[in-house]
């Protein structure tokens, strides 16, 4: 009798487990559809708009993926001539970093609906090329070298005293930043830890190397 009871109990448990698994498998596609639908509903394209024949007067705009609903994102600067550029989405899509100003330039962040604009940098007026860390907590940028700032504007830190005009590139794990410098009389690629230590030169040749991009596994940084 004891053996029969144990077998029956085991069968009941197995049936319940299989039932829950089947329910989970049938529910997963629905959840996936809802997530994809939400992502498509909130998807937005950021771009630059510039008037013709009046010098650079670019402004950051956003629109829906089908081209509808275009609107200017930020409202600072000269009307129609905000001198905005270098826009970059945060990894979670909730904010856009961009450069604004007319010498001096500063880095700002703003929400995709145009709210929450705030100035992050107050360096020397030459800030440019913002690049979000993979976790969205920091922004690396150029300002007479490579610097980082927290996404809320705190924690300013200078990593290097030389950096050329190319967007700094975060490693996938967020521990390193590759950048371009001409400190040795030629454009070469360097890397440094996000904490500012371990700076090293990666390329050594007579060519101009630029635009480093990390491989997804973080093991290579092609130029």
Provide a descriptive summary of the structure in words.
The chain is an alpha+beta fold and about 220 residues long. Among the domains are: about 1-40; about 45-130. About 20% of the residues lie in helices and about 30% in strands. It is built from one helix and 15 strands. It has one helix at about 1-40; strands spanning about 45-50, 60-65, 70, 85-90, 95-100, 105-110, 120, 130, 140, 145-150, 155-160, 170, 175-180, 190-195, 200. A four-stranded antiparallel β-sheet has the order 4-5-6-7, with no helix packed on it. The longest helix is centred in the N-terminal third of the chain and has 41 residues, at about 1-40. The chain is globular. The model is unreliable at about 1-10 and about 10-40 (pLDDT under 50).
Secondary structure layout plus pairing:
Layout: H1 2-42, E1 45-49, E2 59-63, E3 71-72, E4 85-89, E5 96-101, E6 105-110, E7 118-119, E8 128-132, E9 138-142, E10 146-150, E11 157-158, E12 169-170, E13 176-181, E14 188-193, E15 200-201
Antiparallel strand pairs: 1-2, 2-3, 4-5, 5-6, 6-7, 8-9, 9-10, 10-11, 12-13, 13-14, 14-15
């Amino acid at each position: 009798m004891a053996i029969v009871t144990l077998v029956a109990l085991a069968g009941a448990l197995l049936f319940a487990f299989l039932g829950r698994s089947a329910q989970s498998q049938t529910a997963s596609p629905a959840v996936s559809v809802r997530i994809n639908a939400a992502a498509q509903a909130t998807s937005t394209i950021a771009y630059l708009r510039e008037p013709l024949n009046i010098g650079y007067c670019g402004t950051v705009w956003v629109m829906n993926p089908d081209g509808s609903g275009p609107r200017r994102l930020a409202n600072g600067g000269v009307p129609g001539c905000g001198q905005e550029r270098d826009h970059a989405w945060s990894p979670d899509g909730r904010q856009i970093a961009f450069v604004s100003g007319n010498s001096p330039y500063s880095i700002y962040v703003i929400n995709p609906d145009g709210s929450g604009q705030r100035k992050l940098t107050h360096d020397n007026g030459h800030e440019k090329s913002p690049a979000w860390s993979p976790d969205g907590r920091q922004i690396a940028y150029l300002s007479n070298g490579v610097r980082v700032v927290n996404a809320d504007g705190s924690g300013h830190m200078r990593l290097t005293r030389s950096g050329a005009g190319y967007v700094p590139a975060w490693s996938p794990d967020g521990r390193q930043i590759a950048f371009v410098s001409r400190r040795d009389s030629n454009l070469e690629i360097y890397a440094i830890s996000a904490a500012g230590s371990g700076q090293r030169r990666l390329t050594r040749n007579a060519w101009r190397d630029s635009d480093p991009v990390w491989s997804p596994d973080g093991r290579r940084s092609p130029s």
